[in-house]
Design goal:
By secondary structure, this protein is of the alpha/beta class. 41% of the residues lie in helices and 24% in strands. It is globular, with a radius of gyration of 19 Å.
Length: 302
Amino acid sequence: MSFWIVTDACCDLPVDYIHKQHDLHIVPMSYQIDGNVSEIDLTDATLASRVHTFYELLSNGKVATTFQVNQNEWVDHIEPLLKQGHDVLLLVLSSSLSGMYLTSKAAEDELRAKYPERKFYSFDTRSASLGEGLLVHYALRYRDEGHTIEETLKWLEENGQRAIHWFTVTDLHFLHRGGRLSATSAYLGTILKIKPVLNVDPKGRLIPRIKVQGRRHSLKELYEKVAQDALEPQKQTVFISHADSEKDAQWLADRLRDKLHVPEILLSQIGPIVGSHSGPGTVAVFFLDKDGSARLDSPETK
């Protein structure tokens, strides 16, 4: 028997991709900016234009706050599927970045008690944006090949660490606001035009790794990381997300096609939930490595 895959709006999958899938449900999320609360529904075809407006507001100094999916909201979205006799595999934003995995586990306990005959598993992706989306993509493909919910969950547990994230930002103050850089580092980096290149470690935390001068150098670093770590890039799908920076994302995509012969690249915007913390101009690349070793270990962030 097939099953539904459910995830949250932090996965940043594009609307045309979502509409091509079956038995996939994405739980909307909300943010607040300039006193207004808005919902992010990734199936909304008008979302792209609203995201552009969102980044314009951030660039003009507005501050956005986000709301996580709580236990009751998970239940509201998943219980109808269980009632209809479906099993559910839920992929959630990294527990190191949000409390949503904890709320999903609470919902899992609640719904297991109400529907003991159904199967419902929550999986901590330890990923964000299209890194989370990449795992959803492979889970969908694995399921559609005929694997059971337990087999798909096992694949995620064995391969989730292989989802490698590298990204760069243009405005260091958003990272400072999110606790990733000190105020002094953010100020000096801005003055010196330093562009940090970050990745996601095994616990799903965002870790600054490299400092380069200039935007083009930071984009070249993203390319170099794919060239260095991707398992057979000429045979896999690479995901690229961007925060209202399509031209730079397209430059990276073209370079991956030309130099590494990547056959399929999915580009998508970073939505307001993730973008509130990374800021406008962020560009990120996601791919699979051989064994997860490209998720570099790191000390606790300060």
